[in-house]
Amino acid sequence: MSGVLLIAHGLVVRSDLPIPEWLFGWAAAMVLVISFVALAVLWPDPRLQEEGWRPLPGGLGRVLTSRPVEVLCGAVAVFLLGLVVYSGFEGTQSSTANFAPTFVYVIFWVGLVPASVLFGDLFRAFNPWRAIGRAVAGVAQAAARGPIPAPLAYPERLGRWPAAAGIFAFATMELVISNGSKPENVAIAALVYSALTFVAMALYGVEAWIDRGEAFSVYFNLFSRISPLERRGNRIGLRKPLSGLSALEPLPGTVPLVAVMIGSVTFDGAAEAPLWTNLAPDLANFFESIGISPEHALEASFFVGLLAAVLVIYGFYRLGVAGARTVGGGFSSRRLAGTFAHTLVPIALAYASAHYLTLLLFQGQGLVVLHPIPQPGFLASDPLGNGSDIFGTAGKAINFGVISSNQTWYCQVGFVVAGHVAGLTLAHDRALSIYDRAKLAVRSQYWMLGVMIGFTSLALWLLSQANT
Amino acid sequence: MTIVVAHAGHWLVNLGYFAPVIGFLVWLAIVQIRDRRRGGNE
Q1: Is the pLDDT score of A292 beyond 60?
Q2: Domain that holds residue A176
Q3: Which is deepest, A73, A213, A226, A442, by most CB within 10 Å?
Q4: ipTM above 0.85?
Q5: pLDDT category, A2, cuts 50, 70, 90?
Q6: How many domains are there within chain A?
Q7: Which residue would you say has higher pLDDT here, A141 or A194?
Q8: Which stretches of chain B sit within 8 Å of chain A by CB?
Q9: Which chain A residues touch B39 with a CB distance below 8 Å?
Q10: Residues A364, A260 contacting (CB under 8 angstroms)
Q11: CB contact (8 A) between residue B17 and residue A460
Q12: Domain spans of chain B?
Protein backbone atom coordinates (compact mmCIF):
# COMPACT_ATOMS: atom_id res chain seq x y z
CA MET A 1 0.00 0.00 0.00
CA SER A 2 2.95 2.33 0.40
CA GLY A 3 3.54 4.79 -2.37
CA VAL A 4 7.29 4.29 -2.55
CA LEU A 5 6.96 0.59 -3.22
CA LEU A 6 4.20 0.84 -5.79
CA ILE A 7 6.42 2.85 -8.11
CA ALA A 8 9.02 0.15 -8.50
CA HIS A 9 6.63 -2.78 -8.64
CA GLY A 10 4.78 -1.57 -11.70
CA LEU A 11 7.78 -1.42 -13.97
CA VAL A 12 8.45 -4.96 -15.02
CA VAL A 13 7.06 -5.28 -18.54
CA ARG A 14 8.43 -8.30 -20.37
CA SER A 15 7.67 -8.53 -24.03
CA ASP A 16 10.04 -10.85 -25.89
CA LEU A 17 10.98 -13.77 -23.67
CA PRO A 18 11.90 -16.85 -25.75
CA ILE A 19 9.48 -19.10 -23.83
CA PRO A 20 6.33 -18.42 -21.76
CA GLU A 21 7.02 -17.30 -18.19
CA TRP A 22 5.34 -20.38 -16.69
CA LEU A 23 7.81 -22.62 -18.54
CA PHE A 24 10.58 -21.01 -16.48
CA GLY A 25 8.80 -22.54 -13.47
CA TRP A 26 9.02 -25.99 -15.05
CA ALA A 27 12.68 -25.47 -15.87
CA ALA A 28 13.36 -24.33 -12.30
CA ALA A 29 11.60 -27.43 -10.93
CA MET A 30 13.75 -29.60 -13.23
CA VAL A 31 16.89 -27.92 -11.91
CA LEU A 32 15.78 -28.73 -8.36
CA VAL A 33 15.08 -32.38 -9.19
CA ILE A 34 18.46 -32.73 -10.94
CA SER A 35 20.16 -31.03 -7.96
CA PHE A 36 18.40 -33.44 -5.62
CA VAL A 37 19.62 -36.47 -7.55
CA ALA A 38 23.13 -35.01 -7.81
CA LEU A 39 23.21 -34.40 -4.03
CA ALA A 40 22.02 -37.94 -3.32
CA VAL A 41 24.77 -39.40 -5.52
CA LEU A 42 27.68 -36.99 -5.08
CA TRP A 43 27.23 -35.70 -1.50
CA PRO A 44 27.34 -38.83 0.70
CA ASP A 45 28.66 -37.21 3.93
CA PRO A 46 27.78 -34.02 5.83
CA ARG A 47 30.11 -31.19 4.79
CA LEU A 48 28.47 -28.04 6.14
CA GLN A 49 28.06 -28.99 9.80
CA GLU A 50 31.60 -27.77 10.51
CA GLU A 51 32.28 -24.17 9.49
CA GLY A 52 36.04 -24.58 9.00
CA TRP A 53 36.64 -20.93 9.96
CA ARG A 54 40.15 -19.60 9.27
CA PRO A 55 41.29 -16.04 10.06
CA LEU A 56 42.17 -13.81 7.12
CA PRO A 57 45.91 -13.33 6.76
CA GLY A 58 47.40 -9.91 7.43
CA GLY A 59 46.20 -7.19 9.77
CA LEU A 60 43.04 -6.14 7.90
CA GLY A 61 40.75 -8.06 10.25
CA ARG A 62 42.30 -6.46 13.32
CA VAL A 63 41.95 -2.98 11.81
CA LEU A 64 38.30 -3.51 10.84
CA THR A 65 37.45 -4.80 14.32
CA SER A 66 39.49 -2.18 16.17
CA ARG A 67 37.87 0.11 18.73
CA PRO A 68 38.15 3.33 16.65
CA VAL A 69 36.52 1.68 13.61
CA GLU A 70 33.78 0.25 15.85
CA VAL A 71 33.10 3.70 17.34
CA LEU A 72 33.10 5.29 13.87
CA CYS A 73 30.60 2.73 12.50
CA GLY A 74 28.37 3.25 15.55
CA ALA A 75 28.54 7.04 15.12
CA VAL A 76 27.56 6.76 11.43
CA ALA A 77 24.63 4.53 12.38
CA VAL A 78 23.41 6.90 15.10
CA PHE A 79 23.72 9.84 12.68
CA LEU A 80 21.62 8.00 10.06
CA LEU A 81 18.96 7.12 12.65
CA GLY A 82 18.91 10.76 13.73
CA LEU A 83 18.61 11.88 10.10
CA VAL A 84 15.66 9.53 9.54
CA VAL A 85 13.85 11.01 12.54
CA TYR A 86 14.78 14.63 11.73
CA SER A 87 13.91 14.44 8.02
CA GLY A 88 10.72 12.56 8.85
CA PHE A 89 9.48 15.37 11.09
CA GLU A 90 11.07 18.42 9.46
CA GLY A 91 11.11 17.48 5.75
CA THR A 92 8.47 17.41 3.07
CA GLN A 93 5.74 14.84 3.65
CA SER A 94 6.07 13.44 0.13
CA SER A 95 7.38 9.90 0.59
CA THR A 96 9.43 9.99 -2.63
CA ALA A 97 11.07 13.39 -1.95
CA ASN A 98 12.05 12.73 1.68
CA PHE A 99 15.15 10.86 2.86
CA ALA A 100 13.41 8.81 5.58
CA PRO A 101 11.12 6.42 3.63
CA THR A 102 13.65 5.61 0.90
CA PHE A 103 16.43 5.07 3.42
CA VAL A 104 14.34 2.83 5.69
CA TYR A 105 12.38 0.81 3.09
CA VAL A 106 14.99 0.59 0.34
CA ILE A 107 18.58 1.08 1.52
CA PHE A 108 18.18 -0.34 5.04
CA TRP A 109 15.50 -3.01 4.62
CA VAL A 110 16.39 -4.23 1.12
CA GLY A 111 19.97 -3.07 0.47
CA LEU A 112 21.42 -4.47 3.68
CA VAL A 113 20.29 -7.98 2.72
CA PRO A 114 22.75 -8.53 -0.19
CA ALA A 115 25.37 -6.55 1.76
CA SER A 116 25.04 -9.01 4.66
CA VAL A 117 25.28 -11.98 2.31
CA LEU A 118 28.43 -10.58 0.69
CA PHE A 119 30.25 -9.06 3.67
CA GLY A 120 28.86 -10.83 6.74
CA ASP A 121 27.08 -9.29 9.70
CA LEU A 122 27.55 -5.61 8.76
CA PHE A 123 24.51 -4.49 10.72
CA ARG A 124 26.11 -5.56 13.99
CA ALA A 125 28.73 -2.85 13.39
CA PHE A 126 26.21 -0.32 12.06
CA ASN A 127 23.44 -0.97 14.59
CA PRO A 128 22.51 2.40 16.14
CA TRP A 129 20.66 0.85 19.09
CA ARG A 130 23.62 -1.37 19.98
CA ALA A 131 26.00 1.59 19.69
CA ILE A 132 23.85 3.76 21.98
CA GLY A 133 23.23 0.89 24.41
CA ARG A 134 26.93 0.11 24.72
CA ALA A 135 27.83 3.80 25.10
CA VAL A 136 25.20 4.28 27.81
CA ALA A 137 26.34 1.13 29.63
CA GLY A 138 29.95 2.38 29.48
CA VAL A 139 28.99 5.79 30.87
CA ALA A 140 26.84 4.20 33.60
CA GLN A 141 29.72 1.94 34.59
CA ALA A 142 32.12 4.88 34.76
CA ALA A 143 29.65 6.98 36.77
CA ALA A 144 29.00 4.13 39.20
CA ARG A 145 32.78 3.62 39.56
CA GLY A 146 32.28 -0.11 39.48
CA PRO A 147 30.13 -2.82 37.94
CA ILE A 148 26.49 -1.93 37.34
CA PRO A 149 23.73 -4.41 38.34
CA ALA A 150 23.62 -7.46 36.06
CA PRO A 151 20.66 -7.60 33.65
CA LEU A 152 17.93 -10.23 33.88
CA ALA A 153 18.60 -13.55 32.21
CA TYR A 154 17.00 -13.66 28.73
CA PRO A 155 14.06 -16.10 29.00
CA GLU A 156 14.87 -19.20 26.94
CA ARG A 157 11.26 -19.68 25.88
CA LEU A 158 11.26 -16.23 24.22
CA GLY A 159 13.90 -17.40 21.74
CA ARG A 160 13.52 -15.47 18.49
CA TRP A 161 9.82 -14.69 19.05
CA PRO A 162 10.43 -10.95 19.75
CA ALA A 163 12.34 -10.72 16.45
CA ALA A 164 9.50 -12.49 14.61
CA ALA A 165 7.01 -10.04 16.14
CA GLY A 166 9.25 -7.08 15.24
CA ILE A 167 9.64 -8.12 11.59
CA PHE A 168 5.90 -8.76 11.35
CA ALA A 169 5.24 -5.27 12.77
CA PHE A 170 7.65 -3.76 10.23
CA ALA A 171 5.92 -5.64 7.38
CA THR A 172 2.57 -4.38 8.68
CA MET A 173 3.89 -0.81 8.62
CA GLU A 174 5.21 -1.29 5.08
CA LEU A 175 2.37 -3.26 3.50
CA VAL A 176 -0.75 -2.70 5.57
CA ILE A 177 -0.82 0.79 7.08
CA SER A 178 -2.10 3.16 4.39
CA ASN A 179 0.29 5.97 5.43
CA GLY A 180 3.16 3.65 6.32
CA SER A 181 5.58 5.44 4.02
CA LYS A 182 4.61 8.96 5.12
CA PRO A 183 7.88 10.47 6.43
CA GLU A 184 6.37 11.59 9.73
CA ASN A 185 5.02 8.09 10.41
CA VAL A 186 8.39 6.54 9.56
CA ALA A 187 10.03 8.89 12.10
CA ILE A 188 7.45 8.06 14.78
CA ALA A 189 7.90 4.33 14.16
CA ALA A 190 11.69 4.73 14.43
CA LEU A 191 11.32 6.51 17.77
CA VAL A 192 8.82 4.00 19.16
CA TYR A 193 11.01 1.07 18.09
CA SER A 194 14.09 2.76 19.57
CA ALA A 195 12.32 3.26 22.91
CA LEU A 196 11.18 -0.38 23.03
CA THR A 197 14.68 -1.56 22.15
CA PHE A 198 16.31 0.54 24.87
CA VAL A 199 13.87 -0.78 27.49
CA ALA A 200 14.54 -4.37 26.40
CA MET A 201 18.33 -3.80 26.40
CA ALA A 202 18.10 -2.29 29.89
CA LEU A 203 16.22 -5.38 31.08
CA TYR A 204 18.16 -8.17 29.38
CA GLY A 205 21.50 -6.58 28.50
CA VAL A 206 22.66 -5.08 25.23
CA GLU A 207 24.25 -8.15 23.63
CA ALA A 208 21.60 -10.64 24.77
CA TRP A 209 18.81 -8.54 23.25
CA ILE A 210 20.78 -7.83 20.07
CA ASP A 211 21.53 -11.54 19.60
CA ARG A 212 18.00 -12.82 20.04
CA GLY A 213 15.33 -10.18 20.43
CA GLU A 214 16.18 -7.11 18.33
CA ALA A 215 14.30 -7.74 15.11
CA PHE A 216 16.68 -6.25 12.57
CA SER A 217 19.83 -7.66 14.19
CA VAL A 218 18.36 -11.15 14.09
CA TYR A 219 16.98 -10.63 10.56
CA PHE A 220 20.29 -9.46 9.03
CA ASN A 221 22.29 -11.97 11.08
CA LEU A 222 20.32 -14.81 9.48
CA PHE A 223 21.29 -13.58 6.00
CA SER A 224 24.90 -12.98 7.05
CA ARG A 225 25.19 -16.68 7.91
CA ILE A 226 25.15 -17.40 4.17
CA SER A 227 28.32 -15.32 3.82
CA PRO A 228 31.82 -16.85 3.83
CA LEU A 229 32.98 -13.92 6.01
CA GLU A 230 32.54 -14.00 9.77
CA ARG A 231 33.90 -11.99 12.66
CA ARG A 232 35.09 -13.89 15.73
CA GLY A 233 36.44 -11.75 18.56
CA ASN A 234 38.81 -9.26 17.03
CA ARG A 235 39.49 -11.35 13.91
CA ILE A 236 37.67 -11.66 10.61
CA GLY A 237 37.89 -15.02 8.88
CA LEU A 238 36.60 -17.17 6.06
CA ARG A 239 34.30 -20.16 6.44
CA LYS A 240 32.44 -22.41 4.01
CA PRO A 241 29.55 -20.49 2.42
CA LEU A 242 26.19 -21.52 4.00
CA SER A 243 27.96 -23.26 6.90
CA GLY A 244 27.01 -20.40 9.24
CA LEU A 245 23.38 -21.43 8.76
CA SER A 246 24.11 -25.01 9.78
CA ALA A 247 25.40 -23.61 13.07
CA LEU A 248 22.12 -21.75 13.70
CA GLU A 249 20.67 -22.66 17.08
CA PRO A 250 17.03 -23.81 16.60
CA LEU A 251 15.62 -21.48 19.26
CA PRO A 252 11.85 -21.11 19.79
CA GLY A 253 10.37 -18.71 17.25
CA THR A 254 12.91 -19.40 14.52
CA VAL A 255 10.47 -21.07 12.09
CA PRO A 256 7.80 -18.37 12.64
CA LEU A 257 10.47 -15.70 12.05
CA VAL A 258 11.49 -17.19 8.71
CA ALA A 259 7.82 -17.73 7.82
CA VAL A 260 7.25 -14.00 8.44
CA MET A 261 10.28 -13.18 6.27
CA ILE A 262 9.00 -15.27 3.34
CA GLY A 263 5.29 -14.64 3.97
CA SER A 264 5.60 -10.85 3.98
CA VAL A 265 7.32 -10.87 0.57
CA THR A 266 4.74 -13.38 -0.65
CA PHE A 267 1.93 -11.06 0.34
CA ASP A 268 3.67 -8.06 -1.20
CA GLY A 269 3.78 -9.96 -4.51
CA ALA A 270 0.31 -11.46 -4.17
CA ALA A 271 -1.17 -8.02 -3.44
CA GLU A 272 -0.57 -7.20 -7.12
CA ALA A 273 -2.30 -10.37 -8.38
CA PRO A 274 -5.92 -10.35 -9.57
CA LEU A 275 -6.62 -13.06 -6.99
CA TRP A 276 -6.03 -10.50 -4.22
CA THR A 277 -7.27 -7.37 -5.99
CA ASN A 278 -10.60 -9.15 -6.55
CA LEU A 279 -10.77 -10.45 -2.98
CA ALA A 280 -9.60 -7.35 -1.06
CA PRO A 281 -12.69 -5.17 -1.79
CA ASP A 282 -15.01 -7.95 -0.56
CA LEU A 283 -12.97 -8.32 2.61
CA ALA A 284 -12.96 -4.54 3.11
CA ASN A 285 -16.75 -4.47 2.60
CA PHE A 286 -17.10 -7.12 5.28
CA PHE A 287 -15.06 -5.05 7.75
CA GLU A 288 -17.10 -1.95 6.84
CA SER A 289 -20.29 -3.90 7.46
CA ILE A 290 -19.23 -4.57 11.05
CA GLY A 291 -18.70 -0.87 11.69
CA ILE A 292 -15.05 -0.21 10.74
CA SER A 293 -14.35 3.00 8.81
CA PRO A 294 -13.56 2.58 5.06
CA GLU A 295 -9.83 3.46 5.49
CA HIS A 296 -9.35 1.09 8.39
CA ALA A 297 -11.47 -1.59 6.69
CA LEU A 298 -8.99 -1.66 3.80
CA GLU A 299 -6.10 -1.83 6.27
CA ALA A 300 -7.85 -4.66 8.13
CA SER A 301 -8.26 -6.60 4.88
CA PHE A 302 -4.57 -6.14 4.06
CA PHE A 303 -3.67 -7.25 7.59
CA VAL A 304 -5.71 -10.42 7.12
CA GLY A 305 -3.95 -10.97 3.77
CA LEU A 306 -0.49 -10.54 5.31
CA LEU A 307 -1.31 -12.86 8.20
CA ALA A 308 -2.77 -15.45 5.82
CA ALA A 309 0.37 -15.36 3.65
CA VAL A 310 2.59 -15.97 6.69
CA LEU A 311 0.36 -18.81 7.89
CA VAL A 312 0.32 -20.42 4.42
CA ILE A 313 4.14 -20.40 4.30
CA TYR A 314 4.37 -21.73 7.86
CA GLY A 315 1.74 -24.39 7.15
CA PHE A 316 3.40 -25.52 3.93
CA TYR A 317 6.75 -25.94 5.69
CA ARG A 318 5.15 -27.86 8.57
CA LEU A 319 3.42 -30.08 6.00
CA GLY A 320 6.81 -30.93 4.48
CA VAL A 321 8.19 -31.64 7.95
CA ALA A 322 5.21 -33.85 8.80
CA GLY A 323 5.89 -35.79 5.59
CA ALA A 324 9.60 -36.13 6.40
CA ARG A 325 8.63 -37.50 9.81
CA THR A 326 6.74 -40.39 8.23
CA VAL A 327 9.97 -41.93 6.89
CA GLY A 328 11.06 -42.79 10.44
CA GLY A 329 14.05 -41.92 12.55
CA GLY A 330 12.04 -41.30 15.72
CA PHE A 331 12.08 -37.49 15.57
CA SER A 332 9.19 -35.35 16.76
CA SER A 333 7.61 -32.87 14.35
CA ARG A 334 8.76 -29.96 16.50
CA ARG A 335 12.35 -31.18 16.55
CA LEU A 336 12.42 -31.73 12.79
CA ALA A 337 10.88 -28.30 12.15
CA GLY A 338 13.59 -26.62 14.23
CA THR A 339 16.38 -28.77 12.82
CA PHE A 340 15.58 -27.82 9.22
CA ALA A 341 14.53 -24.19 9.89
CA HIS A 342 17.87 -22.85 8.63
CA THR A 343 17.16 -24.30 5.16
CA LEU A 344 14.45 -21.66 4.70
CA VAL A 345 16.88 -18.73 5.02
CA PRO A 346 18.27 -18.98 1.43
CA ILE A 347 14.65 -19.16 0.28
CA ALA A 348 13.87 -15.97 2.18
CA LEU A 349 16.91 -14.45 0.47
CA ALA A 350 15.68 -15.63 -2.94
CA TYR A 351 12.22 -14.17 -2.35
CA ALA A 352 13.57 -10.82 -1.10
CA SER A 353 16.24 -10.49 -3.82
CA ALA A 354 13.92 -11.39 -6.67
CA HIS A 355 10.96 -9.34 -5.48
CA TYR A 356 12.82 -6.19 -4.45
CA LEU A 357 15.50 -6.17 -7.18
CA THR A 358 13.99 -3.30 -9.16
CA LEU A 359 13.03 -1.43 -5.99
CA LEU A 360 16.68 -1.41 -4.92
CA LEU A 361 18.09 -0.65 -8.38
CA PHE A 362 15.64 2.15 -9.16
CA GLN A 363 14.53 3.75 -5.87
CA GLY A 364 17.97 3.16 -4.34
CA GLN A 365 19.32 5.72 -6.80
CA GLY A 366 17.62 8.32 -4.63
CA LEU A 367 20.49 7.88 -2.17
CA VAL A 368 23.32 6.22 -4.06
CA VAL A 369 24.05 6.31 -7.79
CA LEU A 370 26.56 3.66 -8.93
CA HIS A 371 26.56 4.24 -12.69
CA PRO A 372 28.51 5.70 -14.51
CA ILE A 373 30.46 6.88 -11.42
CA PRO A 374 29.47 6.33 -7.77
CA GLN A 375 27.96 9.49 -6.30
CA PRO A 376 25.26 10.55 -3.83
CA GLY A 377 21.69 10.55 -5.17
CA PHE A 378 19.18 13.38 -5.15
CA LEU A 379 17.83 12.50 -1.69
CA ALA A 380 21.35 12.64 -0.22
CA SER A 381 21.67 16.16 -1.65
CA ASP A 382 18.21 17.22 -0.53
CA PRO A 383 17.17 14.91 2.35
CA LEU A 384 14.34 17.13 3.54
CA GLY A 385 13.00 17.86 0.06
CA ASN A 386 13.18 21.59 0.77
CA GLY A 387 15.38 22.61 -2.16
CA SER A 388 18.86 22.18 -0.67
CA ASP A 389 21.65 20.78 -2.87
CA ILE A 390 24.44 19.55 -0.57
CA PHE A 391 26.35 17.41 -3.12
CA GLY A 392 25.16 19.14 -6.29
CA THR A 393 23.05 16.12 -7.32
CA ALA A 394 19.59 17.29 -6.20
CA GLY A 395 18.48 17.64 -9.82
CA LYS A 396 19.35 14.01 -10.72
CA ALA A 397 16.50 11.77 -11.83
CA ILE A 398 16.16 8.00 -11.49
CA ASN A 399 17.65 6.17 -14.46
CA PHE A 400 15.22 3.37 -15.23
CA GLY A 401 17.53 2.04 -17.93
CA VAL A 402 20.06 0.45 -15.56
CA ILE A 403 18.43 -2.93 -16.15
CA SER A 404 15.98 -4.05 -18.83
CA SER A 405 12.76 -5.87 -18.05
CA ASN A 406 14.04 -9.13 -19.54
CA GLN A 407 17.35 -8.87 -17.66
CA THR A 408 15.31 -8.31 -14.49
CA TRP A 409 13.29 -11.47 -15.15
CA TYR A 410 16.40 -13.59 -15.81
CA CYS A 411 18.03 -12.28 -12.62
CA GLN A 412 14.86 -13.01 -10.64
CA VAL A 413 14.63 -16.58 -11.97
CA GLY A 414 18.35 -17.03 -11.23
CA PHE A 415 17.93 -15.81 -7.64
CA VAL A 416 14.92 -18.06 -7.06
CA VAL A 417 16.62 -21.18 -8.44
CA ALA A 418 19.94 -20.52 -6.66
CA GLY A 419 18.19 -19.85 -3.33
CA HIS A 420 16.18 -23.06 -3.51
CA VAL A 421 19.15 -25.18 -4.58
CA ALA A 422 21.03 -23.73 -1.57
CA GLY A 423 18.09 -24.63 0.68
CA LEU A 424 18.00 -28.15 -0.74
CA THR A 425 21.75 -28.53 -0.18
CA LEU A 426 21.46 -27.43 3.44
CA ALA A 427 18.54 -29.79 4.03
CA HIS A 428 20.41 -32.73 2.45
CA ASP A 429 23.50 -32.00 4.52
CA ARG A 430 21.49 -31.78 7.74
CA ALA A 431 19.57 -34.97 6.94
CA LEU A 432 22.85 -36.86 6.48
CA SER A 433 23.98 -35.68 9.92
CA ILE A 434 20.81 -36.61 11.86
CA TYR A 435 19.65 -39.87 10.23
CA ASP A 436 21.73 -42.93 10.95
CA ARG A 437 20.94 -44.49 7.54
CA ALA A 438 21.69 -42.64 4.30
CA LYS A 439 18.57 -44.16 2.70
CA LEU A 440 16.34 -42.62 5.38
CA ALA A 441 18.10 -39.29 4.94
CA VAL A 442 17.42 -39.24 1.21
CA ARG A 443 13.81 -40.39 1.62
CA SER A 444 13.15 -37.70 4.19
CA GLN A 445 14.37 -35.21 1.62
CA TYR A 446 11.68 -36.17 -0.90
CA TRP A 447 9.44 -34.00 1.25
CA MET A 448 11.88 -31.12 1.46
CA LEU A 449 12.21 -31.30 -2.32
CA GLY A 450 8.42 -30.93 -2.47
CA VAL A 451 8.63 -27.88 -0.21
CA MET A 452 11.34 -26.34 -2.40
CA ILE A 453 9.44 -26.98 -5.65
CA GLY A 454 6.33 -25.49 -4.06
CA PHE A 455 8.16 -22.36 -2.90
CA THR A 456 9.87 -22.03 -6.32
CA SER A 457 6.59 -22.24 -8.22
CA LEU A 458 4.99 -19.75 -5.82
CA ALA A 459 7.92 -17.32 -6.16
CA LEU A 460 7.83 -17.35 -9.97
CA TRP A 461 4.04 -17.04 -10.05
CA LEU A 462 4.23 -14.06 -7.68
CA LEU A 463 6.88 -12.39 -9.84
CA SER A 464 4.78 -12.96 -12.95
CA GLN A 465 1.88 -11.20 -11.25
CA ALA A 466 3.80 -7.94 -10.98
CA ASN A 467 2.55 -6.90 -14.40
CA THR A 468 -0.76 -8.74 -14.68
CA MET B 1 -19.73 -21.49 -15.18
CA THR B 2 -19.73 -19.43 -18.37
CA ILE B 3 -17.50 -16.86 -16.73
CA VAL B 4 -15.04 -19.48 -15.55
CA VAL B 5 -14.77 -20.96 -19.05
CA ALA B 6 -14.45 -17.53 -20.65
CA HIS B 7 -11.50 -16.71 -18.42
CA ALA B 8 -9.95 -20.15 -18.68
CA GLY B 9 -6.93 -18.72 -20.48
CA HIS B 10 -6.05 -16.70 -17.39
CA TRP B 11 -6.35 -19.35 -14.73
CA LEU B 12 -4.90 -22.09 -16.93
CA VAL B 13 -1.72 -20.00 -17.26
CA ASN B 14 -1.67 -19.62 -13.48
CA LEU B 15 -2.14 -23.36 -13.15
CA GLY B 16 0.87 -23.79 -15.45
CA TYR B 17 3.12 -22.35 -12.74
CA PHE B 18 1.96 -24.94 -10.23
CA ALA B 19 1.98 -27.96 -12.56
CA PRO B 20 5.43 -29.06 -11.27
CA VAL B 21 4.06 -29.11 -7.69
CA ILE B 22 1.08 -31.17 -8.77
CA GLY B 23 3.34 -33.51 -10.75
CA PHE B 24 5.68 -33.90 -7.81
CA LEU B 25 2.83 -34.63 -5.39
CA VAL B 26 1.49 -37.33 -7.73
CA TRP B 27 4.97 -38.89 -7.92
CA LEU B 28 5.35 -38.71 -4.13
CA ALA B 29 1.96 -40.35 -3.61
CA ILE B 30 2.95 -43.20 -5.98
CA VAL B 31 6.26 -43.69 -4.10
CA GLN B 32 4.45 -43.74 -0.74
CA ILE B 33 1.86 -46.27 -1.90
CA ARG B 34 4.57 -48.46 -3.44
CA ASP B 35 6.65 -48.34 -0.25
CA ARG B 36 3.64 -49.24 1.89
CA ARG B 37 2.81 -52.21 -0.32
CA ARG B 38 6.41 -53.38 -0.14
CA GLY B 39 6.32 -52.95 3.64
CA GLY B 40 3.09 -54.96 3.77
CA ASN B 41 4.55 -57.77 1.67
CA GLU B 42 7.71 -57.95 3.80
Answers
A1: yes
A2: 3-467
A3: A213
A4: no
A5: very low
A6: 1
A7: A194
A8: 10, 13-14, 16-21, 23-25, 28, 31-32
A9: none
A10: no
A11: yes
A12: 2-41
